User: Fold this.
Amino acid sequence: MCRAMELQPHRVRAIFFLGDGLRDVDESMADGAELYSVQGNCDWLCAHLALTERICELDGFRILATHGHAYNVKSGLGALISRAAKADADVVLFGHTHQPLLETIPAGSVIGDRTLEHPIYLFNPGSIGYGGSFGTITIRGREILFSHGEVR
Assistant:
């Protein structure tokens, strides 16, 4: 996590840890940034340390963070998309598959009984522990940019 922060061109304001390895996460690693962490399916020994899902607002964007196992993301994203629509999330951060992904559900899409008024961005940073990938989100006004990086 620290190496990924060093690679950022600007000061990191928030860090999202998306589960599996929660016992290794320490507030001091955040170096002054807000730390949001969720429990993964391999975090059962420290389940009392974090929620399985978090919703927060950053710069006007509503972010849903989850590990993804509770939504069976290895079998598809339908359940996660439904949850995001119900939560009125702009961004969904998830892990579990260890595969980097960025997918957009466009405004106007019908999800269950809801028609989206804004797009939903599904972002999986991959896994810093398995393969060395991480994700970066940059927010400038109402523009949000997503990128993947690697540590070696």
Summary: The longest helix spans residues 78-86. The helical segments are 2-6, 78-86.
